Amino acid sequence: MKKILLNISAIGLLLVAVSCTDVLDKQAVDTFNEQLVFSDMNVVNAYLGKVYDRMGGNTDNGILGMREDILTDMTDQTLCIHRPSNFVMLKGTMTPDNLGHFTNDGLGGYLRWNNLYSNIQDANRILANIDAVPSVNQDALKKQMKGEAYFIRAYDYSTLMMVYGGAVLKDTQYKLDDDFTTAKRSSIKETLDFILKDIQSAIDNLPATVEQGRANRAAAGALKSRVLLFCASKLTNGGWTEQASNTLISFPAGSQTALLTQARDAAKDVMDGKYGTFSLVGTTSEPASPLSAADIQKYADNYFSIFNQKAAWNSETIWGIEYPLSGGNVNNMNIWSGPNGYHNWGNNNPTEQAVRKFEMADGSKFQWDKYNPGDMDVRTATAEELAADPNRNPYNGREPRFYACVLYDGAPWQARPADAAGLEPENKVQTSYFFHNVGDATPWKSGIDTRQGLIEAWNGQKTGYNLRKLLDPATAGQYYRNTNAWI
Q: Where located (predicted)?
């Protein structure tokens, strides 16, 4: 009996040992080393997806796509109302310790070379290992993913080049024991040649059509034209006189014409369908002259629709970023930039200077002082004068793009939320102030979309305008996320 009991005990201990091994010896599902990543095509695909997210910077959203603060806030075209943004850029006082609005993660990826190189390292890792990943009948997918990695590396290097000029070029992944002291920047010409080689590799490996949101052959072709056009600019061809001979930021003398020709030819390749078939949406014939109000609205709607695509994209779209509600990157453009009278945050205000650049519907230049030469600040008109000439209203008779891009005083927009409907029942943007008499210092009524309005006044615009382009008229930003794509 004793012997039997001992044997049973031994068997029990063995079972416990085996059981413990099975339970505890598990692979982590929240972290992966390189060996695990490149042992499964599904994991490699997920890894590539994260590299997409980080294009242009080592943050979850990189620099591409919708942002609370858009890049034009660094210029005199739009104004960020929540943070001082462009003064460092416009005054030329930017330093490594004071990047202005580029300090935050949303825009910092444009200037932080360490973030860009981190993503380049990830692309290099994919290119170095993907051929050895076990797979069955997935050669086409491997080829496509190679093309995507080449495309991403080219895009990130193009961002480095546009900011810094010549970059440290690396087409293999760094190892911990590498000698980093020998790394040196290449000339801007060598950097361009490196990028163009990557783009060609992307073109050679990418299919013409692919799952929406992933890079296709035409996206690589379009990137080629974009990069060449930048390199053909005056800036990189002696425009900075004191640095005209600096090969890190200037091309050899006499390069500009050839670069312009290459940029043109690369764009034409995309337009001619060399990499895939695309076609314009809407009316492509010569517009009527003069344009009727209905014509203007039709063209405005067509232009606006480019930036309001959801689900399947139209035949004009080469590449973009999706924003499904189910997850992934987040697009909240309506609440970020919509008028405060809708409980939105009112950011990214078009400036008066930018608004005045939009032409009249007949193609003539807009002149603020047309009716009172020399007065560039005020336009006045009586009811009788407006009836006789509606264009005395500065927002009447403008070109279609104006109505697609700008929410101006009196612009039709969404139905007001319940607590604002009684204050402004016509569902029109109200960025103006109302005075009893000309010359009064204090308004008797402030528009609901102003900084003296009754709905979240602290989010009111500062220029008289809100952004319309990139917003979605069907989304109540106060409650819901946007689903329109970044194109």
A: Cell outer membrane
